């Protein structure tokens, strides 16, 4: 599946590896988490109210539609969090009781 | 708690905040500058992360000299201010900002507060707008500017206002096959607005040049359109729209950037207790300021697009002017000529802004026809129908009551995205003027506050 | 219509429910609300439909109310999101555990059965609770509802049943003539032989004007809500403690958000009609919320609010007939625990006003408890 975002510049940065829903993806140093996830895929989370998948909207920390989970149970706002090597992100079921 | 330093805090390190801080520093003050993002620059002159190599000319085009100057000014300020990036102001309490930085709470008392909180895209919902692949126009621009990415290889841009054409042109320049620029405003409005737009001939010419370049590249530009629906299963596949003649079209695309002008981030002004008034031109409730940026609350100043949308150039001037006002109010001498010059330059920009409001009006008329099942509040997934029921059967006469009944605007974004549109939907449903529909009151936290926040020892 | 059998001053949950049940008993009703129906404490409270932990003589009223909550769709046509999800009071200290044990024994005498759960049973049933929780007192038939909806829902039902409701009808003065009370308001005068004051935190001012001052203080309970999460935490829960700051409580609504409150209150003003949410109080709630429900630490708070509530010096509401004025009735000052009682208060006040008998014992709430005895 192609991602939602496509790189058109600055593609010569060092690669970093992250895990998304147990699958390894490659991103670039300097990506936001949102960029890393949406170059590799087309979703960040499911709406809590059953109206489908979401993949952010404003990209500037205002709309709050890009919060994802880490496997360890932390919440991250993807558009304002730098992607870091070894991050393990969940876009589906939450590690919630 | 004692006020530390000089007790002057600037919130926001975009064009307004940087110029305000710079003016304060010039007067011998060491202000605290609080910025939510990791870097200064704001959104228009947003900086790319460390390690990116594109020159300012590639990022900011015709504004690259201004961007470079602003960034250099900000850099020079860092050692001369109490610089606090990555810091969210989430509440204001009795002359104190409550801030959160990486989960650590701190209280910052102030004597003078300059809010330069910027703006975000103003939205009009349409069916399907929450699908992956739909971003705000600002978001589409940030993807390109700050991340070197585009939101689609064949995107459509929808909305109105100068940003619509600028972003489409920037995408074109990035080598992307723009599948359409769809503007809800009628071209005739631009002609009628010409006397106001003439206040800034350079900008007017630049806007025309973008349009011309898009046309030359064969990009379809349509005005006076009605957006109908974003189609797609789990991501954007197409945009359906109707042209001015009433003919329906379907533009296949893999990304949509949408925005209808900007709306100020006024939550902190609200928490500071600033009075608001309805601005008929903008069709928004805005915090009241005197010409120099003084709010209705003593020692609280508002500058830049966070107070009223006039763009980055005006924000730089307004930031400096608000700093002058704060200096003068604290008993320091400020040359009247400096302030008069700033006011005069701002007046022309205000006139231009009034022209833009006429040329690219917010498409309030669309609110009445939004299908009932359209999500208005994307956080809580509240439909136009639920909002109309709150205003109809449940009798909510203004947006806060409608929020209480329907949950519109109650979600993570606190009504940033849906607030103005929700007021339009309610006003249309009740047949009342937009001013009467009111505005969503701000509440702490203005952005989500991690529960794991540690109180200061 | 400017004349009726009963005028109700105050359109919170007490007033709207009373209006509805008075109509069920065939009396004509005019309800006068200064602001909007349910917009103060009735609409801003936590939403607890809790019986356990109450002043025991309140249980007959609470039991009556609980029965109405369970049948709201049948009675008023909508459920106001009432969820009989169970309610937990959780003890972290030995002395609090002892108080739970004593309360459970005493409550049984009043018709409320509570389960005391400890040890592995507690962990098995409510695995998300803190491992340091010693005991939970579980009230299986209690639960929660949406305070923003309940009073307006009763108001609509009352209207459908023929009550006249006026919003924006600030009371300017009340005069008792030979037969009638004449209530002057911002929108005109209204007249009735019977008058109920259910004006919440403002009730004390009206009672004082009738020569019955009461010790009531307005204050601002501190509320907040997290972002939505999958619905997993069924019971409402609160910390059973005598330490004010620790006394937080929370509930997860079916849509997923976790509503919370408790701890220190802030100031509220009867004159500005504003209740202050002090963000420092929110911060102070956080560690206690995390102690009660550790997984909540991962979440973010997205909104806080407050509302003007009236607290009596003895933490017991004023409810029943006036001690001085014939035809005058009170139901106000519910001290932050009135939401559960609201429907029952409405039914009881209607019975009292229509028949002269409350149907359940309400003497402990009589305003005459504050009347000054003869000198000496």
UniProtKB/TrEMBL annotation, chain A:
Name by which UniProt lists this protein: 2Fe-2S iron-sulfur cluster binding domain-containing protein
Record's keyword annotation contains Ion transport: no
Alphabetically ordered keywords of this record: Oxidoreductase
Molecular function terms from GO: iron-sulfur cluster binding; oxidoreductase activity
InterPro entries assigned to the protein according to its UniProt record, in alphabetical order: 2Fe-2S-bd_N (IPR042204), 2Fe-2S_ferredoxin-like_sf (IPR036010)
Key word Oxidoreductase present: yes
Species of origin: Falsiroseomonas stagni DSM 19981
TrEMBL record, chain B:
Keywords: Oxidoreductase
Residue ranges of domain FAD/NAD(P)-binding in the record: 8-315
Gene Ontology MF terms in the entry: oxidoreductase activity
BFD-like [2Fe-2S]-binding domain sequence ranges: 375-427
Highest taxon listed in the record's lineage: Bacteria
Residue ranges that the Swiss-Prot or TrEMBL entry lists as coiled coil: none
Database matches in InterPro entries: BFD-like_2Fe2S-bd_dom (IPR007419), BFD-like_2Fe2S-bd_dom_sf (IPR041854), FAD/NAD-bd_sf (IPR036188), FAD/NAD-binding_dom (IPR023753), Metab_Enz_Cyan_OpOx_G3PDH (IPR051691), Opine_Oxase_asu/HCN_bsu (IPR017224)
Pfam families per record: Fer2_BFD, Pyr_redox_2
Family matches, as PANTHER family: ANAEROBIC GLYCEROL-3-PHOSPHATE DEHYDROGENASE SUBUNIT B (PTHR42949)
UniProt protein name: NADPH-dependent 2,4-dienoyl-CoA reductase, sulfur reductase
Automatic annotation (TrEMBL), chain C:
Keyword Oxidoreductase recorded: yes
Gene Ontology molecular-function annotations: oxidoreductase activity
Alphabetized PANTHER family for the sequence: SARCOSINE DEHYDROGENASE-RELATED
Superkingdom of origin: Bacteria
Keyword Oxidoreductase: yes
Species this protein is from: Falsiroseomonas stagni DSM 19981
Residue ranges of domain FAD dependent oxidoreductase in the record: 5-352
Keywords in alphabetical order: Oxidoreductase
The name this protein goes by in its record: Sarcosine oxidase subunit beta
Entry GO terms, CC: cytoplasm
């Amino acid at each position: 599946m192609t991602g939602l975002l496509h790189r058109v510049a600055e593609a010569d940065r060092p690669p970093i590896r992250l895990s998304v829903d147990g699958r390894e993806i490659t991103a670039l140093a300097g990506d936001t988490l949102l960029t890393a996830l949406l170059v590799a895929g087309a979703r960040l989370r499911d709406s809590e109210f059953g109206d489908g998948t979401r993949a952010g909207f404003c990209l500037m920390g205002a709309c709050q539609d890009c919060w994802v989970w880490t496997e360890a149970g932390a919440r991250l706002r993807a558009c304002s969090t730098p992607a870091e090597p070894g991050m393990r992100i969940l876009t589906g079921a939450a590690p919630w009781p | 708690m004692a006020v530390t330093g000089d007790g002057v805090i600037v919130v926001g390190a975009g064009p307004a905040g940087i110029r305000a801080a710079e003016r304060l520093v010039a007067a011998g003050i060491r202000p605290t500058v609080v910025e939510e993002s990791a870097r200064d620059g704001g959104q228009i002159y947003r900086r790319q992360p460390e390690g990116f190599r594109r020159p300012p000319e590639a990022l900011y085009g015709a504004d690259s000299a201004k961007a470079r100057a602003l960034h250099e000014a900000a850099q020079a300020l860092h050692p001369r201010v109490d610089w606090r990036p990555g810091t969210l102001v989430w509440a204001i309490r009795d002359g104190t900002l409550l801030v959160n930085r990486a989960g650590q709470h701190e209280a910052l008392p102030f004597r003078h507060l300059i809010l330069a909180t910027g703006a975000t895209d103003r939205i009009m919902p349409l069916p399907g707008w929450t699908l992956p692949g739909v971003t705000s126009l600002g978001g589409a621009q940030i993807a390109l500017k700050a991340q070197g990415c585009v939101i689609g290889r064949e995107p459509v841009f929808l909305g109105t206002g100068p940003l619509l054409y600028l972003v489409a042109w920037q995408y074109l320049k990035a080598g992307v096959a723009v599948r359409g620029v769809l503007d809800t405003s009628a071209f005739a409005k631009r002609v009628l607005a010409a006397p106001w737009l003439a206040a800034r001939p350079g900008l007017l010419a630049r806007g025309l040049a973008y349009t011309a370049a898009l046309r030359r590249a064969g990009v379809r530009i349509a005005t006076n359109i009605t957006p109908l629906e974003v189609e797609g299963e789990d991501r954007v596949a197409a945009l359906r729209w109707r042209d001015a003649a009433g003919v329906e079209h379907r533009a296949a695309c893999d990304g949509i950037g949408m925005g209808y002008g900007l709306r100020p981030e006024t939550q902190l002004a609200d928490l500071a207790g600033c009075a608001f008034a309805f601005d008929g031109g903008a069709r928004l409730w805005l915090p009241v300021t005197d010409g120099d940026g003084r709010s209705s609350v003593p020692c609280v100043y508002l500058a830049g697009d966070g107070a009223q949308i006039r763009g980055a150039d005006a924000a730089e001037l307004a930031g400096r002017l608000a700093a002058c006002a704060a200096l003068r109010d604290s008993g320091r001498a400020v040359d009247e000529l400096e302030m008069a010059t700033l006011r005069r330059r701002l007046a022309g920009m205000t006139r231009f802004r009034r022209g833009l409001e006429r040329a690219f009006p917010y498409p309030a008329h669309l609110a009445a026809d939004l299908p009932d099942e359209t999500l208005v509040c994307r956080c809580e997934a509240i439909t136009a129908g639920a909002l109309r029921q709150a205003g109809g059967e449940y009798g909510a006469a203004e947006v806060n009551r409608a929020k209480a009944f329907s949950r519109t605007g109650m979600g993570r974004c606190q009504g940033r995205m849906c607030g103005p549109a929700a007021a339009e939907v309610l006003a249309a449903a009740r047949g009342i003027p937009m001013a009467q529909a009111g505005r969503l009151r701000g509440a702490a936290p203005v952005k989500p506050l991690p529960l794991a926040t540690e109180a200061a020892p | 219509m400017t004349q009726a059998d009963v005028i109700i001053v105050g359109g919170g949950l007490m007033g709207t429910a009373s209006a509805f049940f008075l109509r069920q008993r065939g009396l004509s009703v005019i309800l006068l609300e200064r602001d909007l129906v349910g917009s103060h404490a009735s609409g801003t409270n936590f939403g607890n439909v809790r019986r356990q932990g109450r002043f025991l003589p309140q249980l007959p009223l609470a039991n009556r109310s609980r029965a109405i909550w369970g049948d709201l769709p049948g009675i008023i046509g909508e459920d106001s999101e009432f969820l009989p999800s169970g309610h937990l009071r959780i003890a972290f200290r030995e002395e609090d555990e002892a108080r739970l044990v004593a309360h459970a024994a005493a409550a049984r005498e009043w018709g409320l059965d509570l389960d005391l759960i400890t040890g592995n049973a507690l962990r098995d049933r409510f695995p998300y609770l803190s491992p340091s929780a010693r005991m939970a007192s579980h009230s299986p038939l209690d639960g929660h509802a949406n305070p923003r909806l309940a009073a307006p829902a009763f108001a609509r039902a009352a209207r459908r049943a023929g009550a006249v409701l006026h919003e924006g009808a600030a009371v300017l003065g009340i005069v008792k003539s030979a037969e009638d009370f004449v209530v002057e308001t911002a929108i005109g005068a209204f007249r009735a032989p019977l008058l109920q004051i259910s004006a919440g935190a403002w009730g004390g001012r009206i009672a004082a004007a009738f020569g019955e001052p009461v010790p009531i203080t307005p204050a601002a309970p501190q509320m907040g809500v997290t972002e939505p999460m999958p619905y997993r935490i069924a019971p409402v829960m609160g910390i059973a403690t005598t330490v004010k700051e620790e006394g937080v409580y929370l509930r997860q609504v079916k849509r997923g958000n976790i509503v919370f409150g408790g701890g220190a209150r802030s100031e509220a003003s009867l004159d500005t009609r504003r209740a202050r949410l002090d963000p420092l109080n929110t911060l102070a709630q956080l560690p206690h919320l995390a102690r009660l429900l550790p997984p909540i630490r991962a979440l973010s708070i997205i909104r806080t609010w407050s509302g003007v509530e009236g607290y009596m010096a003895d933490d017991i509401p004023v409810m029943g007939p006036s001690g001085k004025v014939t035809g005058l009735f009170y139901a106000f000052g519910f001290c932050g625990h009135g939401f559960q009682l609201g429907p029952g208060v409405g039914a009881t006040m209607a019975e009292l006003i229509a028949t002269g008998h409350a149907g359940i014992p309400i003497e402990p709430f009589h305003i005459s408890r504050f009347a000054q005895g003869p000198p000496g």
